[in-house]
Write a structure and sequence with these properties.
With 197 residues, the protein is of the alpha/beta class. It is built from five helices and twelve strands.
């Protein structure tokens, strides 16, 4: 990690596919900040209740207690005197997260966000491209393709659900490389969801 002068805030983004270690890396950075005697607070979207209602939990069960919020706009007030603010599952937040992160950084806080950079179709996910554009530091994590073992940066959905946000873990997603990744075509989706055609 690069060192900045005291009182200078910045934004870090940790992105990648499912199972690439984004939350694990977020937890590692926040734990190091605590070792450095920084006041740390981490937030997650209220809708993510997969492993914990409030804490952030990686797929390998590392965890940190945190605060679940329904809107990004709630974060600055709740962050209070925290010097380091973590945000997990950033892609699930409303569009206010980007200006909120910029506001926190201008206030001298280190902001560390983790989230999926691409959705199940391999398209940029929500606000993540904007968040990556305003960040001082961006780290792209990679998983291992479950088909061929190459570096993976796609999240393969194993169901034919159409919605962009579908919470799940290994029951719904697996990591794939570019060559092994595929998106069901519209014809396949219509067979399973004719009412949405």
């Amino acid at each position: 990690m690069q060192f900045m002068r005291p009182g200078c805030g910045w934004i870090e983004v940790i992105c990648g596919s499912m199972y690439s270690g984004k939350t694990e890396e977020l937890i590692r950075r926040l734990r190091l900040a605590r070792i450095a005697r920084k006041e740390v607070l981490v937030f997650k979207p209220e809708l993510d209740t997969r492993y914990s209602a409030t804490g952030i939990v990686s797929h390998n069960e590392q965890s940190l207690s945190g605060v679940a919020v329904s809107r990004a706009r709630m974060i600055p007030e709740l962050a209070g005197g925290a010097e380091v603010v973590g945000v997990d599952e950033a892609q699930f937040f409303d569009g206010e997260l980007v200006p909120v992160c910029e506001e926190l950084a201008r206030a001298g806080k280190r902001v560390v966000c983790a989230g999926l950079d691409k959705d199940w179709r391999g398209e940029p996910f929500g606000l993540m491209p904007r968040l990556m554009a305003v960040a001082e530091f961006v780290t792209k994590q990679h998983a291992i393709c479950v088909v061929c073992g190459n570096p993976a940066n796609f999240s393969q959905r194993k169901t034919l659900a159409r919605e962009q946000v579908l919470l799940g873990a290994t029951d719904v997603y697996e990591a794939r490389c570019r060559q092994c990744f595929s998106v069901p075509d519209e014809e396949q989706l219509e067979l399973f969801h004719p009412e949405k055609a």
